[in-house]
Each structure stands twice: as structure tokens, then as C-alpha cells.
Amino acid sequence: MYDTSRSIVNLQEKVNNLIFSKEILNEIVSIIRRRYPIEACGLLLGKIIGDNAYILKVDELKNVLGSTDSFWIDLREWMNKILKYKRQGYEYIGIFHSHYRGNVIPSMNDLERMIECPEEIWMIIKYTSEKVEYAAWRLDDKNFGLYKINIFIK
Description:
The chain has about 150 residues and is an alpha/beta fold. It is built from 3 helices and 7 strands, in the order βαββαβαβββ. The chain has one domain: Cytidine Deaminase, domain 2 (3-Layer(aba) Sandwich). The termini are far apart.
């Protein structure tokens, strides 16, 4: 029998908590600020223990649309980076991206993409010059709706 992962994410349990440092948050915001007003996006990488996902590293992905209100990634870049970090001992947890208008709830485009990789965590950051808001999401246990992930900054 071949040793294969269940998915690109390979989560054995559903994540309920996203835990990361203030430095990781600052790195995400820095990427978003550099790309403003283009929507920024990137990888969330780290370790999963039980229902906790610990974000230990982030890495920017290019928004191939170059759009201020949507994003899409180069799938080859995405996969190459996931494999690179897997070799370094990191687990792929999900994606972050920015919203400049609206809120931190996934858009219809986001939901379509989430269905393609239902175990991914999606962190959405609303960025304005006045403040930063964020939330994390995954599909619920039945993959029918959204489940909001708790975020803890330590």
C-alpha cells in the first residue's frame, strides 16, 4: 500500500484554534501593507497539535490577478512552496489574504476556493490605514458551511 496524505493539508482532526505570535501577525500585516491596494495573499505554515494550529511561518504568494478586490494564486508557486516548507518540517495550514473593503467574512470567490481544499484554514485580514481586523475560517465538519476559528495571539 502506498503512503499518501489524505489531502494537501493532511489534517487528521479539524482545527478549532489558530495560535501565533505578535511577530507573525506583524509579518502578515507588513506583506499586506507592501501590496496595498492590491489584495495580498500568502501561506500559513506551522504545526498542528490536536485541534490547535500553531502558525510559525508565513510566506507571501503572488496575486496573479493584481486586483484590489480579489486574488488568485499561481498553483505551481503554491504547491512548490508547500513542498519546500514540508521538507523543512512545517505543515501547511492554509492561506491568508487581505480585504480592503467590506469585512473579514469570506467572499463568494473565497468560498468557491475553500470548497476545493476543505481542510484549509483561511485567515482574512481587513486592512485600512486606521486599523487591522482579522478572522479565520474553515468549512464546518460536514463541509456544508463556515466555521469560525478562534484566534489566539501569544
